[in-house]
Amino acid sequence: MNWTETIERISGVNPRKCMKCGKCTATCPAYEEMEYHPHQFVDMLSSGRVEELMGSRGIYMCLSCFACVERCPRNVEPAALIEAVRTAVLRQQGANHMKADAVPALLEEELPQQAITSALRKYSKGG
Amino acid sequence: MKIWKLDRLQDLFAALAGERTLYIPADVAGQAKFTPWEPGMEMTKALNTNRSAKDLFFPQVEDLAAFKITGRQIQVEDNREDVEDFVIFGVRACDARSFSILDKVFLEEPADTYYKNRRDHATVMTLACSRPEATCFCTALGIDPQAPGGDVSCWVEGENLYLQANTQKGEALLEKLPAMEEGEKPQGDASVFDRLPLKDVDFSVFSEKALLHWFNSPVWEELSRSCLGCGSCTFVCPTCQCYDVKDFDTGTKVKRFRCWDSCMYSDFTMMAHGTNRPTQKERFRQRFMHKLVYYPNNHDGEIGCVGCGRCLRKCPISMNIVKVAKALKEGSV
Amino acid sequence: MQERVIEKAAQLLESGLCSRVLGWKKGEFFYDVTPGVFTTAQEVRNEMVFTPFCGANLSKYLIAESRKEGKVAAFLKPCDTYSFVQLQKEHRIRRENVYAVGVQCEGMCDLDSLTALNLTGITGAEGLGENLKVFTLYGEETLSRKDALSLRCNDCKSKKLLDCDEILGESGEEQDSHRFDQVEALEAMTAEERFAFWRRELSKCIRCNACRNVCPACSCEKCVFDNPNSGVENKAAADPFEENLFHIIRAFHVAGRCTDCGECTRVCPQHIPLHLLNRKLIKDMNQLYGTYQAGADFETKPPMLDFTQEDPEPSIITNGRDSG
Amino acid sequence: MPVNQEFKPTIVAFCCNWCSYAGADLSGTNRLQYPANVKIIRIPCSCRLNPMFVLRAFQRGADGVILCGCHPGDCHYTTGNYYARRRMTLLFSLLDYLGIEKERTRVEWVSAAEGAKFAATMNDFCQTIYNLGPNRRLEDLRCKSE
Amino acid sequence: MQRIGVFVCWCGSNIAATVDVKQVAEALGKEPGVVFSTDYQYMCSQSGQEMIQEAIREHRLTGVVICSCSPRMHEATFRKTCQKAGLNPYMVEIANIREQCSWIHKDKITATEKAVILGRAAIAKVHLNAPLTAGTSPVVKRALVIGGGIAGIQTALDIADAGFPVDIVEKKPTIGGKMTQIDKTFPTLDCAACILTPKMVDAAQNENIDIISYAQVEKVQGFVGNFSVTIRKKARYVDETKCTGCGLCTEKCPQKKIPNEFNLGLDNRRAIYIPFAQATPKVATIDPNYCTMLKTGKCGVCSKVCTAGAINYKQEDEIITREYGAIVVATGFEPISMEPFDEFAYSQSPDVVTSLELERLMNAAGPTGGTLLRPSDGAHPHTLVFVQCVGSRCDGAQKGKSYCSKICCMYTAKHAMLIREKYPDTEVYVFYIDVRTPGKNFDEFYRRAVEEYGVHYIKGMVGKVTPQDGKLKVQASDLLGGRQMHIDADMVVLAAAIEPDKSARPLATMLTASMDTNDFFTEAHPKLRPVESPTAGIFLSGACQGPKDIPETVAQAGAAASKVIGLLSKNSLTCNPCTAKPDELMCNGCSSCEKVCPYGAITYVDKPFRGPNRTTLTRRVAQVNPAVCQGCGACTVACPSGAMDLQGFSNKQILAEVDAICR
Question: Which of B72, B251, B278 faces E663 most closely, judged by CB atoms?
């Protein structure tokens, strides 16, 4: 499994568009919590260091506020990248955590169906 | 008179096509057309073909000669191919009459050898009409649709096809066919011909007055006004016989061919000084004057129209020889 | 409607507003109506008609008529008005010399559609409304006008009357027609099948030029096929290639200018579905460069005289579909 | 390039004077080979190509016709190739609609600096025409004799 | 029938090694119309050329085919050769048997065969060639400069110095442009006004220069050498010939609260105003949107105080139509709107300013008299943050511009340096993505800002600015330091991207000059013809063609001027004879050709023609102006009747080539 490719594909992020201005990092409200910062996510993707990123705690600190996406002058979308890295980590863990068959049992009146769908997407391997 | 069973018509075609090409009016791409017969090919249900039978003697395009150029040498090649005998079956009385009109043009000395060649090798089998179209007016021109002429005349009556040879060529053809029963054709009902709406169009007036009377008629201006100047009347007409001679440079040769032309076209008989019929009025007048006045003047009063009615059906704006003849007679539009 | 047309025409002449009227003149039969120019109200009352057989598009006559002295009144059906606008767009008609009277149209019939219903020996007909009573040498028959509609009127694109000085009846709406169905059916064939189809059709062509001469888009002073200096001049197709050539070039020359009035197919003595060539180009242009209807307005730039930087490459054709 | 003894295709390449003709020259300068079946006709701009010329080439025995012009946006006359692009798209579509093999026609944008692309394009196009075989559907038999 | 001579060149072994030149000459000698055919080692050599000339005379040749290298190489040479021998130069065709034959084929038989075919095609074409004569058109010896900024002024001065009259059309009441608003210039730090205003005065006093201020170009007709331009000179309600520029009216006008454009709205002006002290022409202008007299008919204060009697409330726009031989576009630039970048709080705090606003805040003639004060409270700022690349280098075009605005790095260094010099108690931070300083003494300048003036250059970007408690909270990244920074700033200065002036797009349409997607004018060639538009007779000066600093602008202005002078110094222009030509007898007047002509070379006239039967028909027919037509041929294909043909590449000629090749 080539994680770099997978992540590029899932996120749709093209790290080569980044001009390393750091505006994402400048704008990030969770900066202090992370060991890697938005511009570094992009840089690590382009230099093939995603597995380091996947092992980082910081990726769970991202609030998905999308400020970086909004401000990025090059439309690189670091937040989408992090989202993809998280998904990749789940897939890396191996077995499917959720199967389509299990969905009916999980349906609850209160639960938005969208949540189930996105959970299934996130917790299944193939994607 | 010989009798052939209609349900064995295909056998007759097979016999006719045995030694030569047989053309029958058949539907091709939805259009009735004289077509080389092949086993199984049926006659069209249409009264007449879309284009006239003249195509078989005077095709739309015909190679005349070629000039081969090698370096600075020019060599003339006569590519005339030997025409083989052929038979046309199912020619209606109108088209059959058109052959005699064309003959007077093409076979008069000096004869058009290309045309003559085909005429000589053809045997014409005509077919009498029993269900005319409303646009038919051959009877107004002295043609009997029930006595169609040609080398062999044919009639359909009941279950039978009756055949009668009119010429030696026709007899020779019938002799080669399998033996047939002899018999007389029962008299059919011809009353429909008396109900034809155009049966009384008067074509006799054109010989009564001087050529210039018709030429200078004030009606041409009005009649020609809506004419589009296309050639559809000319090209479906069985008696139109004008052609243009053209050269085509293939790169290695120049091929000289002739192709139908229409006096309705703006570039018809174009000369160095330009055209001598500058507006559609003159071109339009030429076509009808030719059929109604010039041709009869040159050929003992015979009108250059056979009343097939094709132009009545095909003109995009429904202008036609009947309207013209009537208007000319009345002197106004 | 016939009475209204005749009355309007007579009135326009009597009032002196127009010196000529362009309309339809009755013929020998009910169906052989000829376009004609009338100069007196009497002529109009005696000879003018507006029947279900007035299919001829009168717009092209205005090229010549509008250049003459005085004003000409023209009775135009919806599809005629599209040609009328398109010709003005090409500066071919002098609008100031034309009084355009739009006539509501319920679709036109033609002899071919009657023949297709196995009627022969048709001597006449009656009926200006929904039904048509047809007389033949062999009896009579009543049929619905709808069944006798000409091919093109079944695919009517619009009943809008454009740029008229006056309207008789009502200007309608653009129609939800299926005019591209046949084109799509052809596109779905393999290249061999299409080739066979078109060879069969185009080999019927006798180069009578009826399609060209009736076409309002083909209004050239001199057609390239009549011009010895054009390099493609020819009078008759001496080879199947020339059958193709004429129709390809013609379709191409009217591309973006053809209003899809259907006259070409109506007048073809050999019944070649020529409109399928024009419609193919219309369909392509609509799909590739945005919907465009020639003659619908005066402003929009025709697609063949326009471009965008994002236009698709020709490779979408040349490596697009399978060649079959 | 496979040599087919039987079939020697004729290929006409219309090249605009400013980009593609210069690109063809460059491929010559760099000695990049492409089949001699390709003959180039110089036109000022790709927009000079009349559909008539394409049809004429087929009539006279061409087996493939290719138009090369400046890349969109680089036209010497600023907009010519945009018109050419529309015209050729529609022409090719119409030919395809008539059942003519669409691979026989092509448009390729070749700049004055793309000698290699010119040669590669011609090699590829020739190969396509070899595979297609002779033009039968749009030929004029009169031009084929002798 | 032509008498054609064929000359096959060996080009040493370049052709002869793979093409059997003798065989080619022999084969082509047999072609119809060929009366002479030969081969030679180097046709382009002196003796080769003489051989051609001799053959022309001896064999009375009417056409010449040269089988040699690419026409791009020697077509001009051989045309000249033949012309000297009395043959029309356009009766020469080249068959390219080197680049497109001998050099790409290895097999001699194949290459020879192909060379013969290429030769035949050229012969086929020459058969149909017609002698062409290049026409001439006179040149109006006057130039128009559109835009009166430093680019326009410099161009006009240079043209005027060469002795040609030149008009400057400026849409504002005064010339001077953006440079008048700038305080100091990099990299020398001299005062902008000190170097610009003398030029403005020069322009005003130059006999050859006519400044048409407060005016706009309305319509452009004609072509290179012969433009006719309609200019609308807006009513300023002050007689320019009477106004002395004393300024009394501008002090007395009761309408005081009008945002002053010159100071970018940082202070106010009156309804009657002179934009700044050195305005040229120095005359007052009434702003009709605010003048009470013009709006209500009551007031008239200015008229009463004006001793020169220059006020004229009834003045109307004046339409001026003049002829020009050349037009220079110098419409300049403007900073983009900061609206899409609200993370920098530009709309929320007056203390966030653009760099151009900062120029005014530091200028002695500015609203603060040259003392840097915070716009919000007039306090002295201690911490300043500069943000680079605001709206420049953006992906796509949704928010900003894809290009680098080029001048920001340098002016920001200048600002930082000036502030640190004047107010040593300040901290100045510059957030940058890259610092781009190519240019003479530019990098040295930037290094001085860092090394001598202690400006904090931080690689990184500002993420957001939040106004809070009278401060601007700046959150930024320091990429090299690996930290997120939080600065409490007093002022934030945004280096806004620059874009072409809004008036450029409609002007381009009038001029039929092409533009890129960013609305910068396109040059005829990006490297070799940088100051000319592809449309002949239109020249480009300054930032209308792309972002530029002052030295570059002035250099380009001079270059444009020299091109104009080159053009105006000619009495007439020789046209390319390979132009489109309509056959009027076949023209339908449908306007198809006009719609595709990129040069506006086609017009229509109603013309009488002889009709049938001695009638006269008037028809609308196309006419091509050969001086404007560049010969692309787009019209020839758009024309449905084939009335339009291209000389030198006619339908027949191309078809003949096709035939010869496919034979």
Answer: B251
E1 touches chain B (CB under 8 A): no
Residues A109 and A78 both lie in one domain: no
My answer on whether C79 and C222 are in the same domain is: no
Question: Which residue in the set E30, E612, E660 is minimally distant from B279, CB to CB?
Answer: E612
The model's pTM: 0.76
Neighbour tally for E91: CB within 10 Å: 22
CB contact under 8 A, C254 and E640: yes
Domain that holds residue A108: 96-127
Three-state DSSP at B247 gives strand
Count CA within 13 A, CB hemisphere, residue D142.
Answer: 24
Q: Where are the alpha helices (DSSP H) in chain B?
A: 9-16, 93-106, 113-121, 168-176, 211-215, 219-224, 232-236, 280-289, 295-298, 310-314, 321-330
Nearest-CA distance from B100 to chain C in Å? 24
Q: Minimum mean pLDDT among A97-101, C151-155, E432-436, E442-446: which range?
A: A97-101
Mean pLDDT (whole number) for A79-106:
78
Percent of chain E with pLDDT over 70: 100
Q: C304 to chain D: which residues are within 8 Å by CB? A: 86-87, 90
Given A39, A71, A75, which is nearest E395 (Cβ)? Answer: A75
- Cα separation, E164 vs E532, in Å, equals 19
Helix axes A78-92, A3-11, angle to 10 degrees: 130
Sign of CA dihedral B140, B145, B146, B151: positive
Min Cα distance A67 → chain E (Å) is: 9
Same domain (yes/no): C163, C199: no
Residue C120 resides in a domain: no
First to last CA, chain D: 28
Q: What is the pLDDT of residue C323?
A: 39
Domain final residue pick, C168, C192, C211? C168
C214 touches B at CB < 8 Å: yes
Whole-angstrom distance between the N-terminal and C-terminal Cα of chain C? Answer: 51
Sign, Cα dihedral of E170, E171, E174, E180: negative
Q: Are residues A89 and A108 in the same domain?
A: no
Eight-class DSSP state of B279: S
CA distances from E453 to B6, E417, E427, E449 (A): 116, 6, 10, 5
Query: Both tokens of residue C120?
Result: 């022969």
Q: How far apart are CA B52 and CA B48, in angstroms?
A: 8
| Token pair of E529 as six digits | 């013809």
> What is the Cα–Cα distance from A49 to C284, expressed in whole angstroms?
48
What is residue E397's predicted lDDT score, i.e. its pLDDT?
Answer: 63
Binary contact (C120, B197; C-beta < 8 A): no
Interface confidence, given as ipTM, is: 0.84
pLDDT at residue A98, rounded to an integer: 67
Backbone angles phi and psi of D70, in degrees to 5: -65, 155
Burial class of D4 by CB neighbour count within 10 A (0 to 12, 13 to 18, 19+): exposed
In the structure, what pLDDT confidence band is assigned to residue B70 with cuts at 50, 70 and 90?
confident
* Euclidean distance between CA atoms B225 and B282, whole angstroms: 11
Flag whether pLDDT at B55 surpasses 90. yes
**b (16+ CB within 10 A) / e for E18-27:** bbbbebbbbb
Q: What span, in angstroms and rounded, lies between the C-alpha atoms of D31 and B9? A: 71
Query: In CATH, what number does E333-499 get?
Result: 3.50.50.60
- Rounded mean pLDDT of E497-524? 89
Which CATH architecture group holds D11-140? 3-Layer(aba) Sandwich (3.40)
Mean pLDDT, rounded, for E426-451: 96
Closest CA to D20 of D71, D57, D56: D71
As a whole number of Å, the end-to-end CA separation of chain A is: 13
Distance CA B75, CA E257 (A): 97
